[in-house]
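Per your request, structure below.
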């Protein structure tokens, strides 16, 4: 029987890779998008353009329980991947209220609607390494204490707790992935990796000269989104639901990311990068590095990309895009 999956946040980086992955496995894939996305399809669906005809899209909003309830009352799903969120940490400092509202209530609405109408549907929650925040130990695993350092991190801890509570209180199949940073050529331009690789390409093409960044010493465990969406599905096809850290186990500074990205384009990063206080955060998460041994052991998951391959793929894609734009102009 064909399995049917619903993805919230299908227009985002992870949603697009997950949709591709599930289609490749023979799933029938549905997605929830907000109406603004439907009104601006060329921009909002750009990550999905190549598979859009094979998807079923439903308009709904995470802010409206009624809109989610209506979808679950009309369509049955085997698996539900709840990826939609205000996902930019810096923005959560600027507007904590809407981040908490979307990320906490949105997750609660999803769980409550499922419990009411489809308690047998398996549920995935997109947890984050930001939940570890001011880290209690290095590396971080499923037992590490949470100490979030941003409204975003706080919203993800609440979503994680809600998900676990629906599992424990109502016996539903609810799993959380605690995913460390994962990037790709489809990453949003506001995140540091894509900000770097897209600006490298513009500098190479003579369209820019300078890249302004915040904390160059921040360390992240960066993986590739295509690898991480495989782990999401593996969590939902187990006999029992549980929570898993997904990470590479490696760590690099923002400075190291710059070095590699500029070098890939034949540029010297020190000639172009300027530190700008405006991009510092009120509270920083300095050292994130994940221990994903449980996922490797129980899910049989492991990443296929290493750090260098990730950076190179992102730079190459942005170089191609910028050179293509220049030719057209
Ligand atoms: P992303 O590219 O920012 O995508 C976010 C998605 O959420 C988009 O489809 C967006 O829709 C949707 N969305 C945002 N606010 C919404 C709202 N109010 N109502 C309905 N949809 C809304 O994020 P991502 O990198 O793919 O991440 C996917 C999930 O994993 C997020 O929950 C994120 O917090 C979490 N996560 C990400 C990482 C990472 O490193 N990428 C790590 C850990 C956890 P529009 O297109 O309409 O804006
Ligand atoms: O920042 C530093 C910044 O915005 C990474 C989201 O997917 O991963 C992501 O959150 C680091 C931080 O991602 C700039 O201070 C320096 O230390 O790329 P980012 P993030 O905050 O780690 C987690 C796991 C998620 O769950 C989130 O959804 O880079 N940094 N200079 C900068 N960051 C940005 N954005 N811009 C700068 O100019």
């Amino acid at each position: 029987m064909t399995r049917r999956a619903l993805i919230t946040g299908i227009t985002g980086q992870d949603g697009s890779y997950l949709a591709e992955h599930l289609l490749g496995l023979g799933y029938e894939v549905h997605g929830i998008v907000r109406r603004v996305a439907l009104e601006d399809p060329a921009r909002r669906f750009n990550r999905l353009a190549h598979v859009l005809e094979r998807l079923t899209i439903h308009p709904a909003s995470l802010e409206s329980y009624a809109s989610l309830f209506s979808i679950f009352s009309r369509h049955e799903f085997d698996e539900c991947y709840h990826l939609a969120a205000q996902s930019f940490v810096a923005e959560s400092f600027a507007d904590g209220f809407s981040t908490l509202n979307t990320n906490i209530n949105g997750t609660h609405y999803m769980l409550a609607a499922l419990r009411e109408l489809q308690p047998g549907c398996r549920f995935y929650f997109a947890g984050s390494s930001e939940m570890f925040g001011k880290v209690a130990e290095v590396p971080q695993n499923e037992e590490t204490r949470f100490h979030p350092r941003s409204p975003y991190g706080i919203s993800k801890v609440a979503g994680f707790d809600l998900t676990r509570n629906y599992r424990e209180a109502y016996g539903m199949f609810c799993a959380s992935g605690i995913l460390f940073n994962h990037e790709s050529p489809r990453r949003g331009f506001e995140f540091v990796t894509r900000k770097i690789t897209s600006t490298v390409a513009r500098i190479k093409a003579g369209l820019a000269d300078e890249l302004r960044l915040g904390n160059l010493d921040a360390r992240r465990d960066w993986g590739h989104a295509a690898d991480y969406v495989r782990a999401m599905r593996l969590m939902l096809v187990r006999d029992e639901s549980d929570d898993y850290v997904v990470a590479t186990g490696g760590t690099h500074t923002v400075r190291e990311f710059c070095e590699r990205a500029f070098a890939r384009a034949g540029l010297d990063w020190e000639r172009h990068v300027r530190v700008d206080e405006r991009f510092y955060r009120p509270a920083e998460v300095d050292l994130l590095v994940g221990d994903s041994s449980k996922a490797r052991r129980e899910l049989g998951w492991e990443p296929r990309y290493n750090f260098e391959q990730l950076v190179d793929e992102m730079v190459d894609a942005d170089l191609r895009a910028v050179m293509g734009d220049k030719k057209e102009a």
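The two ends are 49 Å apart (CA to CA).

Regards,
D.
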